[in-house]
From TrEMBL:
Organism in which the protein naturally occurs: Thrips palmi
Protein name listed in UniProt: Uncharacterized protein LOC117639693
SMART domains: PAN_AP (SM00473), ZP (SM00241)
Name of encoding gene: LOC117639693
InterPro entries to which the protein is assigned, alphabetical: Celegans_DevNeuronal_Protein, Pan_app, ZP_dom
GO process terms (BP): anatomical structure morphogenesis
Length: 632
């Protein structure tokens, strides 16, 4: 039987004892109807019981609650929680004392009317310029917080609303956010926001500063990735959709949302065929205490990155232009020329690669007279191809015929373990000086092997980039008193000795998105097995990935090192990694022997750019000199 969790209806939304006659708050408030929009504040509730205009239970969409307030001239603000909408004739703009934090048991969304030119019709820097649809709330404010990011422009203004208007009117760049300093009146505008910046430490608390984030910008919605957040769902969402047929349809609703920039969704966790969407995700909930409800078997799908790619066919070259919704650091290159036809990208949302038709460094193919093609890779890491990367097949056709447009998908590769043994073995006798009346025992260092396995410990024979794998380290001696620790684990390619450090000299992962911390594996016989989880990757110049690690025995046991690990969203957590030896309190009678282990796997590129059989994950982006159709 399906679990049904219906929204909680909370009395705090109706206001507590902070009321008073507030109907006069709207008096004197004047704004053209086309310029009336809303400012959203998450985690706060407005209390004014004598100013309540209407209470609507069963309201499942924030947009419906806002529309109800929009239609009433006397309505100035609202409180919304999933399932309940309360309208007020006053707002926190004129009565700030009525606004208080509301984060338990669920967090409240408060919205109040404001007047911004072009928020609906689209000013030069507003919805029209960015391609975003007209939305019924324009900005979200995070009180007492500042976004630490690059500032494109400063202005001195009189109010928070004036700062919003400046951001909306910005012509020289897409203004995604602004910091308003109450004391100085400084309005610092940026083309970044909480979702585009790398990491989650950029938004920090600071008194007398408000962070303003625009809802009037558009984001790429092609080639999008969602990561699973298991065991939890948001307590409050923007909209609830019923009778949604599948998870894919729910995902589509999120990507095609017009009322807000959807960043997360869950499906069938609160009822059969129920799809819930939210403009919030982990990067925007740092200031909310416990925004998620812990729920077994529930999954929140959180948007990570999207890419819109267009191809510009010019007289002597083609230009692949990429727009993304998260700051990109990596490279884009021609697949057959990863070193000579490449564009390095640093902290950018928009980047491009130019491929000359007669440039030997780029190796653009001429399939027929007037028809050119190239295979392109968008690579996140500077050195290796990972599961996040994207492969594109670009085509330019110089004719007057209509052209088609598609989009790229994930790069897929597969491989088999290279021939040879299962690793390198090493053993050495300990040394000890014989002393009169003293018995000396020699303990042989353990024999250690390294294997490439799946997460269950089974040896692998094929793999795709992004597959969940592990490096496992085994002590073959059943009765050895030793344990082992692993450090200085590197991956090398099989061509030009390019290498990347995965586990440092302390035993901590250098990039947890590539390889995780070293942990112990429970075994039936009690033998020590260590594993380092990773997602399969390869180097762009080689189909061979070789792993090399330094393994050291220790007595009587190895203590873990505590590592600070940062995830994809910048959240830092402390984990144990078995990568350091325990200091001995007495001299050992044997000696530890460092062991160098090596193992390799051959990864063959399965991307069939040219053939593109039915069902292939490779798509092409085509453009012609005549009538062009490109992605947006």
């Amino acid at each position: 039987m399906a679990r049904v969790l219906w929204p909680l209806l909370l009395l705090p939304l109706l206001g507590g004892g902070l009321g008073g006659g507030r109907a006069a708050a709207a008096k004197g408030w004047s704004c053209r109807q086309d310029d009336v929009t809303f400012e959203l504040i998450t985690g706060f509730v407005y209390s004014a019981p004598k100013d309540v205009l209407d209470t609507r239970t069963g309201t499942l969409k924030l947009s419906d609650c806002i529309a109800a307030c929009q239609d009433q001239a006397g309505c100035q603000s609202l409180n919304f929680e999933t399932g309940l909408c309360v309208l007020f004739s006053s707002s926190a703009e004129t009565h700030p004392g009525g606004l208080a934090k509301s984060q338990f048991p669920v967090f409240t969304l408060f919205a109040q009317k404001t007047c911004l030119r072009g928020a609906k019709a689209g000013a030069a820097g507003g919805a029209a310029k960015t391609g975003a649809p007209a939305r019924n709330w324009a900005f979200e404010t995070v009180r007492g917080h500042v976004l630490r990011t690059s500032v494109r422009r400063h202005h001195r203004v009189a109010s928070r609303r004036d700062c919003m208007q400046l951001c909306l009117d910005q012509r020289d760049f897409v203004c995604r956010s602004a910091n308003f300093h109450h004391d100085s009146g400084d309005c610092s505008m940026s083309d970044m926001d909480r979702f585009t910046v790398s990491g989650m430490s950029s938004l920090t608390a600071e008194e007398r500063v408000d962070y303003l984030e625009s809802n009037c910008v558009s984001d790429p919605i092609k080639m999008c990735d969602f990561t699973e957040q298991p065991g939890r769902i948001l307590k409050t969402v923007d909209s609830v959709h019923q009778d949604v047929a599948s998870l894919a349809d729910c995902r589509k609703l999120c990507l095609q949302s017009t009322e807000f920039r959807c960043h997360s969704f869950d499906y069938e966790d609160t009822g059969p065929k129920v799809c819930r969407l939210s403009h919030h995700a982990a990067p925007s909930l740092q200031h909310i205490e416990e925004p998620y409800l812990e729920l077994d078997k529930a999954i929140t799908y959180q948007l990570t990155a999207c890419y819109n790619v267009t191809i510009d066919c010019r007289g002597t070259d083609m230009v692949a232009r990429v727009q993304t919704n998260k700051v990109f650091n990596g490279k884009v290159y021609a697949k057959s020329r990863p070193n000579s036809c490449v564009s390095d990208v640093v902290n950018s949302l928009d980047f491009q690669l130019k491929l000359g038709y007669h440039d030997l460094n780029c190796d653009v193919k001429q399939d027929a007279p007037g028809k050119f093609s190239a295979d392109i890779i968008i690579q996140h890491h500077d050195q290796i191809v990972t599961g996040q990367d994207v492969g594109l097949s670009a085509r330019c056709s110089y004719s007057l015929e209509n052209s088609t447009v598609g989009h790229g998908v994930r790069l897929e590769v597969a491989g088999e373990p290279g021939g040879g043994g299962a690793g390198a073995n090493a053993g050495a006798a300990g040394s000890g000086g014989a002393v009169q009346s003293q018995e000396t025992t020699y303990v042989v260092s353990p024999t250690v092997t390294m294997r490439i396995t799946d997460r269950r410990g089974e040896d692998i024979h094929t793999a795709q980039v992004g597959d969940a794998l592990s490096l496992r380290f085994y002590i073959l001696d059943q009765h050895t008193p030793y344990q082992i620790f692993v450090r200085e684990l590197i991956a090398l390619d099989g061509v030009d000795s390019s290498e990347i450090l995965l586990i440092d000299s302390l035993g901590c992962p250098t990039d947890p998105t590539i390889m995780g911390a070293i942990s112990t594996v429970d075994t039936v016989d009690g033998s020590q097995v260590l594993q380092a989880p990773f997602d399969a990757f390869k180097f762009p110049t080689s189909d061979v990935v070789q792993f090399k690690a330094l393994v050291t025995p220790c007595l009587p046991k190895c203590e873990p090192v505590v590592c600070d690990v940062e995830d994809y969203y910048g959240m830092v957590r402390r984990v144990d990694s078995y990568g350091r030896r325990r200091r001995r309190e007495v001299s050992s009678k044997g000696k530890d022997d460092d062991v160098i282990l090596m193992q390799s796997i051959r990864i063959a590129d399965k991307f069939q750019f040219e053939a593109q059989p039915r069902g292939s994950l490779v798509r092409e982006i085509t453009d012609s000199l005549g009538e062009r159709t490109t992605t947006h």
